[in-house]
Amino acid sequence: MSRPTWSVQEVLARRPAVRVNQLGHVPGTPARATLVAPDVAPVAFRVVREDGRVVHEGTSVPWPVRPEPTSGLPVHVLELGDLDAGTYRVEAGSARSHPFRVDDGIHAALRDDALRFFTLMRSGTAITVPGYARPAGHPDTAVPAWTGPAAAHLYPGWHDDGTYDVSGGWYDAGDYGKYVTSGAIAAWQLLGTLDLVPGDRRVADECRWQLDWLLRMQVPPGRPLAGLAFHRVHGTTWSPLPGWPHLDPTERVLHRPSTTATLHLAAAAAAGARHLRTVDPAYAHRLETAARSAYDAARQHPALLPPDDHARHGGGPYDDADVGDDLYWAAAELWLATGDPAYEQDVLRSPEHAADPFDDAGFDFDAVGAPARLDLALHGSGLADHDRVVESVRAGADRLLAVQRRQPWGQPYAPAAGWSWGSNGRLLNNLVVLAVAHLVTGDAAYRDAVAEGTDHLLGRNALGQSYVTGHGTDHSHHQRTRQFGHDLDPAMPPPPPGALAGGANSIPAPDFPYDRRLVGQPPQCCYLDEPTSEVTNDVCIRWNAPLVWVAAYLDRFLAAGSALP
Questions:
Q1: What is d(CA 35, CA 12) in angstroms, rounded to the nearest whole number?
Q2: Which of 44, 192, 448, 503 has the most C-beta neighbours closer than 10 Å?
Q3: Which residue ranges does the record assign to the Cellulase Ig-like domain (predicted)?
Q4: Which of 359, 468, 353 is CA-nearest to residue 413?
């Protein structure tokens, strides 16, 4: 039972010509809109309260490059003025925007919904949330290491006849796989949210759920490759789409341990030890012990790389041929958690420490030099060259500011090579860089850039699309998932509020179907809100985690009177 399919042009025709952040703004922060119009001269516009009172009038600034490259559209930028609390719309000639609110508390519900997404993605436990209740899926208490001809071909020389308890954790995305290198960075980012909402039990509970699973993915003593982490666990074939997790008929197996997964486990476990030490010292000690042993095991097996199996065996490969940044991240987190000088020396000696980890393409699971640098800037004041570390964050943020100023849509993301799979997650990670620059320098320009950068995610974009389910008028709500498969099976629930769609993807993936309607479209227009568009409309814990972080940051630091910690 699928929705109709639309061309990109039909979507554009149905959206208001005035594109706004459909959630809204906090009083005193930048409020801008983008008008799609062929006029080469400025266009008069006005901002109208819901009671009909005009509160601001102005003229647009025509964008000098026509069409604008990322959208393929002729556009103008509108400065909406200093707006008091209330609900508004923007009018430009006959065009009207969607309504939006101005209020101090607009980001709290976004933060909470984005966080609840993780509860609904839990594996191995019954879900009792109204509207999303289901039995426990995938107990994963006795999962075998993968054997057979396919495993031997992919992992020559590896054999493990054991079975392992790898229960719990979060499903990664629209499939039922659980991947250490994706799950660790998501856990790290939620742990970082605790700096913004200290003592929030909801965040801490979700982090512990995932950290417990990560600990189970570490190969125990006495087994082959002990101390390393299994790279992933999922079926040997893809599970049906849609389909409930507790009805998944596929055979679950563990893929060979990898150096990258092991270092990601070390980084996330060390970060967990640091964040949770005051509330549960015994648990923090367990995490630290696991992080240390994983780091040591990775040093002993420095080149056990995860191969790219082109997603032929029931899950994504999460391959990564370079372990230098992974080693740097793990060393940084271990030093921050323990203060051990040996880890500090590993940080300082790493080539990654002298490199620039920031660019406008955004960081991700396969580029974790940035997470290391951000945490060193935030928490590593005792580091020998901490001033240089802070300056590197500032420099990276300044380049993102420059990118943002070159965009009529307000997003600090416009990679020349194209918009990638999960572009919304990468854009959010650029916002995290800007936010950390604000936290370590106190410069409000970075804070305001984060506020404006969310405009793109919430409707101020080429398609007039809010990419967060339940937030905005024209919001994504047909994401491609198995367990939220209402579009394809009306007996199943729809994607929940707070689920972030992957977003525009202008780089066809050779191993995944790329809809012909997107071929040749400008980058921002390469998106389909349809339940079969995996490359643009999947969900992922690795994208929702920075959404929680950014929403928590904005909720704390945009309100009047907020101050740096």
A1: 13
A2: 503
A3: 15-96
A4: 359
